[in-house]
Amino acid sequence: MERAKVNQGIDLSAYEDVWVLGEQREGKIQPVTIELMGEGRKLADQLQKKLAVVIPGYKIESEVEKLLHYGADIVYYMSHPLLSSFSTDGYTSAFVQLIQKKKPEIVLVGATSIGRDIGPRIAARLGTGLTADCTKLEIDAEDGKILQTRPAFGGNLMATIVCPKNRPQMSTVRPGVMEKAIHQETAAGTMETFIPDLSENDIRAKLVEIIKEEKKQVNLTDARIIVSGGRGLKSAEGFHLIQELADVLGAEVGSSRACVEAGWIDASHQVGQTGTTVRPDIYIACGISGAIQHLAGMNESKYIVAINKDPEAPIFGICDYGIVGDLNDVIPAMIAKLTQK
Ligand code: FAD
């Protein structure tokens, strides 16, 4: 793979605009794209620059066009048969070509499996830096650089990183952390189609078949209510009670890492620094102590309800409603009340 030398003494003024490298799967725009557009809009407004979103794909114009209703000034549609589904080589090469042509100042990528794969490759080819797994982005009022904050040392401190000399400034951003851009009836921006120079020989790994997992998909990122269980459940059976409450509320089931490590529940349910970051309307933490690594993934929830038998549990320090008691008494009482005719 070609790797650019780190840019030294480049003309920073040649770089404009805030970009989101968007994602589609099977022709459907992914929610992380709308979240990054929400954050990108704020950054672009502060810098008085344009917000652009780039989507790779093939024969999905009408889906891509919808992004004009989420506050984008420009939607770049990178259209090519070799971009119809994800490939590391195809996506990396296409994004690099367009970035080199248009020179954005800031590039945001989702910290998803796709973004974590291509983000560092794109940065390396452009000879710039990348801050991975950001949870907060701000513009420095003094010099207009982006301040990129991410957890460091196992989540024990938050590091703020700047990219002083190279452009674009690139970040991967955790899904579920940023507020989504709001849908608008009118579309003010423009759509441009870019056809990258790609050939079969550029792509070393071929997609043979997509096999969907049969198990129920857990969608913690989009859930409005999450009922989450911790070690206080004592066993895998404890999750039956959590599931029961979740069913009554139309909620998803979350978990602390302790339960995943104990083998009580699948890792796809884990909330936290090394699990999924969530921001539901209501997060109900049952038998979860409130370790910093768990809080890192859920403290942006609108309302946090905690059930814990220890009044000193740290979760009570951040919750909106706290119930001190045994979850085996509290949860059945909640279910009974909610299902009362
Ligand atoms: P505990 O801390 O053991 O808490 C159990 C709680 O249940 C206690 O507060 C207890 O009072 C209460 N309880 C017990 N019985 C009952 C009862 N009958 N009724 C009511 N309450 C009861 N953790 C995560 O969750 N997500 C992560 O992504 C994550 N990432 C990590 C990354 C790193 C690098 C490291 C080092 C750790 C990470 N952890 C993560 C682990 C984290 O530090 C904690 O160990 C974990 O969150 C604890 O889970 P817990 O709250 O379920 O268990």
List keywords for this structure.
alpha/beta; Rossmann fold; seven-stranded parallel beta sheet; five-stranded parallel beta sheet; 8 helices; binds flavin-adenine dinucleotide; ETF_a/FixB; electron transfer activity; Electron transfer flavoprotein FAD-binding domain protein; electron transport
Describe it for me?
The relative contact order is 0.12. The protein is an alpha/beta fold and 341 residues long. The chain contains 8 helices and 17 strands. It has 2 domains: 10-200, HUPs (Rossmann fold, 3-Layer(aba) Sandwich); 223-340, Rossmann fold, CATH 3.40.50. Helix content is 25%, strand content 25%. The structure holds flavin-adenine dinucleotide. Flavin-adenine dinucleotide (FAD) binds next to helix 6, helix 7, strand 16 and helix 8.
How do the strands and helices of this protein lay out in sequence?
Elements: E1 16-21, E2 24-25, E3 28-29, H1 31-47, E4 51-57, H2 61-65, E5 74-79, H3 88-102, E6 104-110, H4 113-126, E7 130-134, E8 136-139, E9 146-152, E10 157-161, E11 169-173, E12 190-194, E13 225-229, H5 238-249, E14 252-255, H6 257-261, E15 282-286, H7 292-295, E16 303-308, E17 321-324, H8 327-338
Helix pairs in contact: 3-4, 5-8
Bound molecules: flavin-adenine dinucleotide.
Question: Summed up, what is this model?
Answer:
With 341 residues, the chain is α/β, with parallel strands linked by helices.
User: pLDDT average, as an integer?
Assistant: 93
In terms of DSSP E residues, the strand content is 15-25%
Which assembly state applies to the chains in this document?
single chain
Detail the poorly predicted runs: none
Structural class by helix and strand composition: alpha/beta
Q: Which ligands does the model contain, each kind named once? A: flavin-adenine dinucleotide
For the termini, the CA-CA separation is 65 Å
* Total helical elements: 8
CATH class of the largest domain: Alpha Beta
Q: What is the H/E string?
A: EEEHEHEHEHEEEEEEEHEHEHEEH
CATH topology of the largest domain: Rossmann fold
What's the overall geometry?
globular
Task: Tell me the domain tally.
Answer: 2
Organism: Anaerostipes caccae (strain DSM 14662 / CCUG 47493 / JCM 13470 / NCIMB 13811 / L1-92)
Family: Belongs to the ETF alpha-subunit/FixB family.
Binding site for FAD: 231, 256-257, 270-274, 287-294, 308
Cofactor: FAD
